[in-house]
UniProtKB/TrEMBL annotation:
Residues 47-126 form the PcRGLX/YetA-like N-terminal RIFT barrel domain. The keyword Iron-sulfur does not apply. Residues 499-905 form the PcRGLX/YetA-like C-terminal alpha/alpha toroid domain. It comes from the Bacteria. The keyword Signal applies. Residues 138-493 form the PcRGLX/YetA-like central beta-sandwich domain. InterPro entries: PcRGLX/YetA-like, PcRGLX/YetA_2nd, PcRGLX/YetA_3rd, PcRGLX_1st, TAT_signal. Keywords: Signal. This is Tat pathway signal sequence domain protein. Residues 1-31 form the signal peptide.
Length: 911
């Protein structure tokens, strides 16, 4: 552990405030009123109760990893941890730290369990002297040309160089899969029939392999490279291969970054391909595709059922069950002598081109026609090919949600079948990433602002590029000793689509004091509180339903939600400029994650998980001129010219990272650390004529949408034990804001130095405020900074801002000498700033004012209307006046106000 964490406070007040989640509110400014209080669970004895997210006990587990928070000072050193089931049986566990408190104690720890371990309704995690080791540890052997990982059940050889990512996966000394490689199909036009179309096939070329974990429970190998053909190397990829002790599977997280020219590079297919050695009779080779859960399509390469002549019941029953048939000598002679005339079906395809339709086809071999085998709505995205010696099951997570997808099995009648999991199906039209309009004559900022005024689209030529956006997919491969039963195959598919996930309880999260502590457990102790809790549930249920009803699915779209509704057309404004895809605008991500923390609900977690996977990849640039920045809301995720820190911010990613220890999200948050270097070239206010000039400073930065986002990035890096340079930049900015004459009201637009992190007052004695500055995670991050550092001057500046933003103009003039000029459009969302100030100062009048702001209009439950018939394409629910901006900010205000000033809610005090 770096000593720099212990020295974090050297530039701040030495005495840190207690973490907000576990402290009784204390006055930090002169106050004469009663301090608001709230009940919080005790921190406990340093142990944590864990449970499976979806409830109950999973049918099986291929290994799982989770993160657990701890109160400050609870574990001053990095301890060993023990895990036990509800009946006291020890469970092997591998543990490591994810984050530290400023005093060096553990803030978050990660824990990995072996395959099929911990299958108990509840488990108990506690610090001990020695952890329980697995019966057979996963091992990693580094060779000159490969990395060999052994789970105790399977061995996987990962190539260090060349076209093959996975050389082989073996079990019991037999290769089950070989030659695992990535494939990409691309063309120079989107029209495959055009005369000038040139199509190329690209294979993976591995350039680097890194062992990130070595066991004993969990091993992680990262593979990096590019797709290559004809002297061109592009589409950089990374694969993380996850291995767990005792597992017969490997989980693969695949990521690629689009670094082509969207006008000439059109992907026509993207997949993972490998070979499966086969032997034995063709009638003992089995193919499986999972359909809509729990459906299964199961056939043999050479069928023995339905023939004119019966081979015998034992043969038919064995083949249907996926078991080896009896010796051929026991087959009816009229069948055995004519088997060469029974077709063998070598090629199979399951294609999911939309969220609501898949098709299964098969053929005997290339050069012959395909026949339709079956069809359905939503395939679970798993398959199997194998024979008497076993085979390989494979699955692609979110298969129908991220359409167009496809599963291929080829040459199953030969000595080796070829399997391809297509993340972009070759059946689909080419991946066309070109901007959706020609600019419509907008060449100057004045013209662009006119366009912004009419369609809310912030267009600028050359800015709507996808160059640098990414996409991640999750794949699992099983090396099985025998063809799985029908029931087992369905269980495998379920585990692919919804991987078993362990979590701690909401009370434990709250008691640990993480994520600012601006939340409480659901409380329905009074009618007033129950009404707000019910409305929180109602609004989440509405959006969860909209994902399905509005088909917010697709390769580039799944995980995002829409911004604003069009009541005239009864659709979300999917085609109207900045009103379409939300791209984290006004923090729906935070609303979902805080909703999960306080409730522990699996459905909220899964929606938030899909959102973070999407927004972290698609809405952020990972290379190129905009690397580290995100794109504001638009018809296309990358379309808006507002490339901003407020979208890419780690504040939206860190929840998932700490709850799951996901390395890819960890990588992305580190990509953001120097994104402030982009502020000069992509000045967020370059189109605003009356913005203060940069003058002598390299860049201009808003304290909320810019510096607040950077603060979240740097805070996360500091607590992860990273480079102390970012801790120092964080402290420098806190000090500079606090030193300005009017604090945050001078930092609405400040001069910024990227190298040092200094912020400078550019407005003199004038003051300003923006309604956007607090609504992209600044409230939450600043609460953490105050609790962690005890920086009194920064806190006082923030409390002043929180108190005055929603205050009447007379109060603003008394405190600042003039009104701050901020827009009142997000008054309800800003009520949580007032609540925070009331909580920190103990000001009862301020607490009552906060509730008045929250109820600026009487609480109106979200009312939905069922629409059907010719008014709409499909039956849907519509909500009057719904807005994602308002929903996210209302939800955050409701959660935080209940936590901080719940006792002052009119009618909200418990009797």
């Amino acid at each position: 552990m770096s000593l720099s964490r212990r020295n974090f406070l050297k530039s701040a007040a030495v005495t840190a405030l207690p973490a907000a989640a576990v402290a009784t509110a204390t006055a930090t400014a002169t106050a004469t009123t009663t301090t608001p209080t709230r009940a919080t669970p005790a921190a406990g004895d340093g142990s944590a109760a864990l449970h499976w997210l979806e409830g109950g006990v999973p049918a099986f587990s291929s290994g799982t990893t989770l993160g657990v928070p701890w109160p400050r000072g609870r574990h001053p050193q990095t301890p060993a941890f023990a895990l036990t089931t509800e009946d006291g049986q020890p469970v092997p566990v591998q543990s490591w730290p994810l984050a530290w408190w400023p005093d060096g104690s553990i803030k978050w720890s990660a824990h990995a369990l072996p395959a099929n371990a911990g299958l108990s309704a509840t488990l108990q995690l506690a610090a001990v002297a020695d952890a329980t080791a697995p019966a057979a540890a996963v091992t990693v052997e580094e060779r000159a040309d490969s990395i060999v990982v052994n789970t105790g059940v399977i061995r996987c050889s990962v190539a260090r160089r060349g076209p093959h990512v996975i050389q082989a996966i073996s079990r019991d000394g037999r290769d089950m899969a070989r030659n695992g490689r990535l494939v990409a199909l691309a063309a120079n036009t989107p029209d495959s029939e055009a005369a000038n179309t040139v199509q190329r096939h690209y294979d993976s070329a591995v350039t680097a392999v890194t062992v990130e974990q070595r066991g004993p429970v969990r091993a992680v190998v990262k593979v990096e490279g590019k797709h290559s053909a004809d002297g061109r190397a592009w589409l950089p990829f990374s694969l993380r291969l996850y291995f767990y002790a005792g597992a017969e599977s490997v989980r693969i997280l695949h990521t690629f970054v689009f670094d082509g020219d969207e006008n000439t590079d059109f992907l026509r297919g993207l997949g993972l391909r490998f070979d499966v050695p086969l032997d034995g009779p063709l009638y003992d080779r089995h193919v499986r595709f999972t359909g809509e859960q729990p459906g299964l399509w199961a056939e043999a390469v050479q069928g023995l059922t339905g023939l004119r002549r019966d081979p015998g019941a034992a043969f038919r029953q064995a083949q249907v069950a996926g078991l080896p048939c009896p010796p051929i000598a026991q087959m009816a002679p009229r069948v055995s002598s004519a088997l060469h005339l029974v077709p063998a079906w070598g090629d199979y395809t399951l294609s999911q081109l939309s969220a609501d339709g898949f098709q299964i086809r098969k053929r005997t071999k290339p050069g012959h026609g395909w026949i339709d085998a079956d069809a359905g709505k939503r395939a679970a995205g798993s398959g199997y090919i194998g024979g008497n010696g076993g085979g390989v099951a494979f699955g692609l997570r979110d298969f129908w949600q991220r359409h167009p997808t496809r599963l291929d099995i080829r040459h199953a009648h030969t000595s080796a079948a070829e399997v391809t999991l297509w993340m972009w199906s070759p059946d689909a039209p080419a991946m066309d990433m070109r901007f959706y309009h020609d600019g419509m004559g907008m060449e100057t900022h004045a013209q662009e602002l006119q366009g912004l005024d009419i369609t809310y689209e912030d267009y600028e030529k050359g800015y709507g590029t996808p160059h640098g956006v990414a996409h991640s997919s999750e794949i699992t491969l099983w090396a099985l000793a025998a063809t799985p039963s029908r029931e087992r195959m369905v269980q495998i598919a379920a585990a692919v689509q919804t991987p078993p996930q362990l979590v701690a309880a909401p009370a434990h999260f709250l008691a640990s004091g993480v994520f600012g502590g601006l939340w409480s457990l659901p409380d329905r102790s009074t009618p007033a509180k129950a009404a707000i809790e019910d409305e929180l549930d109602r609004r989440f249920a509405f959006y969860r339903g909209q994902v399905e009803q509005r088909h917010w699915y697709g390769f580039w779209n799944y995980g995002d939600i829409m911004h604003t509704y069009d009541a005239d057309r009864h659709v979300w404004r999917y085609d109207v400029g900045g009103y379409a895809w939300d791209n984290s605008e006004l923090s729906p991500d935070l609303w979902l994650w805080y909703s999960f923390l306080r409730s522990g609900r699996a459905d909220i977690f899964r929606l938030a998980e899909a959102m973070v996977r999407h927004t972290s990849e698609v809405d952020i640039y990972h290379l190129g001129r905009f690397a580290g920045l995100g794109s504001r809301h638009n018809v296309q995720h990358w379309g808006c010219s507002a490339k901003q820190l407020r979208i890419s911010a780690a504040v939206y990613r860190r929840f998932y990272y700490y709850l799951t220890a996901d390395e890819r999200i960890g990588d992305i948050m580190r990509e953001l650390l120097d994104a402030d270097a982009m502020l000069e070239a992509t000045d967020p206010v370059r189109k605003i004529a009356d913005a203060p000039p940069k003058g002598q400073y390299p860049a201009r930065a808003s304290f909320g949408t810019d510096w607040g986002s950077l603060a979240g990035n740097w805070l996360t890096e500091w607590e992860r034990g990273g480079n102390p340079r970012y801790r120092d930049k964080l402290l420098t900015g806190m000090k500079d804001i606090a030193a300005m004459p009017h604090g945050f009201f001078n930092a609405d637009r400040a001069g910024y130095e990227q190298d040092s992190g200094h912020l400078h007052n550019m407005t003199g004695d004038m003051v300003a405020a923006s309604h956007l500055n607090s609504v992209f995670g600044a409230v939450e991050i600043f609460a953490e900074l105050i609790a962690l550092t005890g920086h009194k001057d920064f806190e006082q500046a923030w409390l002043q801002y929180c108190t005055l933003f929603n205050a009447d103009k007379a109060a603003q003039v008394r405190a600042l000498g003039m009104p701050h000029g901020g827009s009142p459009v997000l008054r309800v969302g800003h009520s949580r700033l007032t609540a925070y100030a009331a909580w920190r100062t103990g000001d009862a009048a301020l607490a009552r004012r906060a509730w008045s702001e929250f109820f600026d209009q009487p609480l109106k439950p979200l009312r939905t209307l069922d629409l059907h018939g010719p008014t709409v394409l499909n039956p849907v629910q519509e909500a009057e006046g719904v807005s994602t901006n308002d929903t996210a900010q209302w939800g955050l205000a409701a959660i935080q106000n209940l936590a901080l000033i719940g006792d002052y809610l009119p009618g909200g005090a418990a009797k």
